Amino acid sequence: MSAKKLIDFTGQAKGFQKHDRFDDNVVNELRKDGAGGEVVVIDYAIGLSEPAIVSDHLNLTGSSPLCGPNNPIGERFPVVNDIYVCDDAKLPKGLQSLKKIVIAGLKDGVKTGEKELELIKSMGAEAFCKNVVHTMIVAAHAKKKVLAIVVPEGKTLSADLLAAIAELN
Amino acid sequence: MSQAVADRAENAVAYLKDKVTGIPAAAVVLGSGVSVLEGLVDSKSFPFLDVFGISPSVHGHSGNVTVGRLSEAEDAPLIAVFRGRFHLYEGHDWSVVTLAARVVALWGVKKLLLTNAAGGLNKDYHVGDLMVLTGYRDHLSPELAQTGLLSAIAKPTTKCSNALSDELLKVGEQLAKDDKEFRPLRQGTYCALAGPNYETMAEIEMLRRLKGDAVGMSTVPEMLAVEGTGTMAAAVSVITNVWREDEPMGGHEEVLEASKMASKRLDQLFRKVLG
Questions:
Q1: Does A62 sit within 8 Å of B202, measured CB to CB?
Q2: What is the distance in angstroms between the Cα of A8 and the nearest Cα belonging to chain B?
């Protein structure tokens, strides 16, 4: 996989663009070189014990970054399936052993405790994060594939994993 | 709601009352590609831009109001057909998305039939099926854009059966008995999401766990808007695709094509119910 856009919400990966949160700067970055290509995104997630690769998502943010006039980079009603890169054959060797999970995207600031995590799990997701889902939707609209790596909140990536991620550069 | 938005509904009613003699017995709102009740007698059409001051921006929503009699019969009811609607995903706020429904209620129209193009969640459904809403899940109300959907998914389905939806089902049952070409109606729960992107497979699975039968991007705001008014609303989804893991998902063109196929049966149904 030849990643064109490297976006890191954890601040840990070398060579990646660092962003504190999903915002217009991320949208502009994803669109500025036109449609097509690939995005690697790294974000923290709650509910995990180990880093994982995202295979699908539930958008529970209550919003979409595509609301409003359609940006001509993509269709008004984009199909957003088969966007995540999670097939081992397409992953660098150092990432193949990571678990593939469904994540839920929540809005920043939403209260989340055990009850909320249980609810999310009952809907089919294993963990939740704040930035991957909207990033993926904008990327999918721009016909880009997305390799999303989620890291337990506050956890430091291992040297091996950082090395594997560096290969994506 | 701001005064300007309230005025917009009142202005629209004043406009329609000026142009139309009498109050329609029923209004119909048509979703993406759904085409019924063509050829109303002695009809007049008004672009949304003239009625509301704005137009929808979506292909498949032409954006006009046609008012006319259902047939040549002297006592045929007057019907108003809203071809097109406003959606949250276009960037409109709730007051605009509910504008047509509020105009219908303010105008004094007693029955409101809503239609939409919807993806089938229920695996027994087929493309072209018509589903009368007996329940809905609201995953698009404005407060959810602030709080997220956790509270919405924790809520039970809202039941929405009434005399009008019962009538649709009863007439549909009779039509299916009399005409082998008329597929029996489905009845089920409609999940309203904001869109505009279609759902992921994980979201489809979630909505199935929530007992949703169909999913779309409209209708619930309009149903909520007429609650507590003198207008009774019922809704029919045209099932334009059925989400299955082993089938690729179609896009908006597929929605429009499937809507056309089902429109003939929906036209039969509405003419019988409103006649």
A1: no
A2: 23
Task: Please tell me which residue of chain A has the smallest CA distance to B201.
Answer: A81
Q: Is B163 on the interface with A (CB under 8 A)?
A: no
- The SS3 call for residue B166 is helix
- The more confidently predicted of residues B268 and B56 is B268
**A3-48 pLDDT, tens per residue?**
478 899 998 888 888 999 999 999 999 999 899 999 999 999 999 9
Amino acid at B207: L
ipTM of the complex: 0.92
What pLDDT, on a 0 to 100 scale, did the predictor assign at position B245? 62
A25 and chain B: CB distance < 8 Å anywhere?
Answer: no
Helix/strand/coil (H/E/C) assignment for every residue in chain A: CCCCEEEECCCCCCCCEECCCCCHHHHHHHHCCCCCCEEEEEEEEECCCCCEEEEEEEECCCCCCCCCCCCCCCCCCCCCCCCECCCHHHCCHHHCCCEEEEEEECCCCCCCCHHHHHHHHHCCCCEEECCHHHHHHHHHHCCCEEEEEEEECCCCCCHHHHHHHHCCC
pLDDT > 90 in chain A, percent: 64
Alpha-helix runs per DSSP H in chain B: 3-19, 48-52, 94-97, 99-107, 142-147, 150-154, 163-178, 201-209, 220-226, 252-274
Q: How many beta-carbon pairs under 8 angstroms link A with B? A: 111
pTM for this structure? 0.90
Interface check for A163 against chain B (CB to CB < 8 A): the answer is no
